[in-house]
Amino acid sequence: MSSRVIVRGMTQEWFMDHFKDMTVYFGGDPRGVPAKDADFVGFYLEAPVSAITHLGIVEKIEREKNLATFYLKAIIKLDSPVKTIDEHAIRKQEYWTLTELGIKQIGIIFNSFAIASV
After folding, report:
1. How far is CA 86 from the centre of its chain?
2. Exposed/middle/buried for 50, CB within 10 Å: 0-12, 13-18, 19+?
3. CB–CB of 90/5 below 8 Å?
4. What integer pLDDT is reported at residue 1 of this predicted model?
């Protein structure tokens, strides 16, 4: 499992609407579609929060022309929200790593199978 995280910028309302669906859509403008896959999606909530607050674990990714859908199997609330180093807003998406988020290991149990990443 890789440690690549696509951090997606969004409003609180958008997060709540998509949180229940366990899906993250990237599309419309081709520049808005991630070129690389990732095992995690970070949720950066715009002002007034202005931080990454949750991390989704990707189950599968479907790609079509100018569209990518990341299906999540779990969403984890971070103990402490993570701000960008220079406190810039994340509008579309950025690539991060678990280490850059301050995460050394994730351990989750699904149906008696342990999943861990470093």
Report:
1. 20
2. middle
3. no
4. 47
H or E stretch at 59: strand 51-64
Cα distance between residue 81 and residue 44, in whole Å: 9
Whole-number Å distance between alpha carbons of 5 and 56: 9
Percent of the chain at pLDDT > 70 equals 88
Rounded Cα gap, residues 7 and 5, in angstroms: 6
pTM of whole model > 0.90? no
Instruction: Give the span between the Cα atoms of 57 and 40, in whole angstroms.
Output: 5
pLDDT digits (tens, 9 = 90+) for 87-100: 788 878 889 999 88
The residues with which 44 forms a beta bridge, in sequence order, are: 9, 52
Sheet with 40-45, side-by-side order of all strands: 23-27, 67-82, 51-64, 40-45, 4-10, 93-97
